[in-house]
């Protein structure tokens, strides 16, 4: 409720207090006759609530004092007690328990004075119980509402923190894949250049040219990746339609790649397309780093509701228990999209990475 809403509420409760006071005078002869002071007290208790959000404790003190004075004098019970109820609720809703509890207890003590002076009050403990309820019930409701609200805010803050952490992790994974692949290819080409520099300088020049081209492509892909992360929309995101470029790049680095496609290639969701490309890229990077066979096979199968990816190479020089974040990173990508991922030795003695990534389409 806004400040304007608080003003409306205060006006309504002030009007109810005045009207109920005038009406109740005619229905009972026990109480003190209503006069101008009764209307002033009833209206004042309601109007004090206009500041309830800004000064909850001060508002409760004012409402409690006016309500208690009204009842101690002996005026009839009426809607002035609703103003008191709202005052107690407000302090419990907008202030922590350590501050709201003492304020509510003080307001209750002030209200209980009338039990011993009001001619219509129930005697003894019978009068204390209903009077206490006017403070205990709204206080409990206010505390519950405040705790629920704080719980929602904490959950929302936690969700934001998790989102930020997820974004950081995703950026780190993208940078790892792009930079790791580029540096692995550059290292291999640099080793070739150093090996041939003295004996065959013309072939070393070819390797150095490949290094320049690979580094340029890696930088371009890194810029594109960061631009997408920053939502600037600069450049296309890597996808399976760029496998031919990846195959050529790996060929310059010394790895012969055979790309096989089955099914009918079709447009994939951007997240699926990127994940599929990264699985192939990281798998070939591992071949470049760890395998001495220097050959690999990439199979991409397009289904109606998923895309299947398999990257395999001879086990020579490859360990399925390599350290690093390559295989765990691929698995995380695929699983995050609801897919299946495996990596290990096959029956025919090859090391194979397999991924099935659903596209969300129905057959």
What features would you describe in this structure?
The protein is of the alpha+beta class and 363 residues long. It has helices spanning 3-25, 36-47, 56-73, 80-94, 97-112, 125-196, 201-229, 243-252, 270-290, 326-336, and strands at residues 256-262, 295-302, 306-314, 340-345, 350-358. The chain has 10 helices and 5 strands. Helix 6 (125-196) runs antiparallel to helix 7.
Describe the structure concisely for a colleague.
With about 375 residues, the chain is an alpha+beta fold. The chain has helices spanning about 5-25, 35-45, 55-75, 80-95, 95-110, 125-195, 200-230, 245-250, 270-290, 325-335; strands at about 255-260, 295-300, 305-315, 340-345, 350-360. Strands 1-2-3-5-4 form a 5-stranded mixed beta sheet, with helices on one face.
């Amino acid at each position: 409720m806004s400040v304007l809403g608080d003003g409306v509420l205060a006006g309504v409760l002030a009007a109810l207090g005045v009207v109920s006071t005038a009406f109740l005078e005619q229905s009972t002869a026990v109480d003190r006759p209503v006069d101008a002071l009764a209307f002033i007290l009833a209206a004042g208790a309601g109007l004090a609530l206009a500041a309830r959000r800004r000064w909850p404790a001060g508002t409760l003190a004012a409402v409690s004092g006016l309500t208690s004075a009204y009842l101690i004098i002996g005026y009839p019970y009426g809607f002035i007690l609703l103003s008191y109820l709202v005052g107690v609720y407000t302090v419990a809703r907008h202030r922590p328990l350590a501050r709201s509890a003492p304020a509510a207890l003080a307001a209750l003590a002030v209200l209980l004075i009338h039990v011993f002076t009001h001619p219509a009050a129930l005697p003894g403990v019978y009068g204390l119980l209903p009077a206490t309820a006017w403070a205990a019930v709204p206080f409990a409701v206010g505390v519950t509402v405040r705790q629920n609200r704080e719980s929602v805010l904490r959950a929302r803050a936690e969700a934001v923190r998790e989102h930020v952490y997820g974004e950081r992790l995703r950026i780190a994974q993208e940078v790892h894949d792009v930079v790791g692949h580029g540096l692995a290819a550059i290292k291999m080409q640099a080793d070739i250049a150093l090996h041939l520099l003295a004996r065959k300088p013309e072939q070393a020049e070819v390797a150095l040219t490949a290094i320049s081209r690979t580094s340029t492509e890696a930088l371009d892909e890194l810029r594109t990746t960061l631009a997408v992360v920053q939502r600037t929309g600069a450049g296309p995101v890597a996808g399976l339609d760029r496998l031919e470029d990846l195959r050529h790049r790996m060929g310059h680095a010394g790895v012969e790649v055979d790309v096989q496609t089955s099914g009918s290639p079709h447009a994939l969701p951007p997240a699926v397309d990127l994940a599929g490309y990264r699985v192939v890229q990281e798998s070939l990077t591992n071949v470049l780093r760890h395998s001495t066979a220097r050959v690999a096979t990439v199979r991409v199968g397009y289904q109606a509701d998923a895309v299947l990816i398999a990257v395999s190479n001879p086990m020579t020089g490859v360990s399925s228990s390599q350290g690093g974040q390559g295989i765990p990173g691929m698995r995380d990508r695929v699983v995050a999209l609801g897919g299946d991922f495996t990596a290990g030795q096959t029956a025919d003695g090859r090391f194979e990475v397999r991924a099935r990534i659903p596209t969300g389409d129905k057959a």
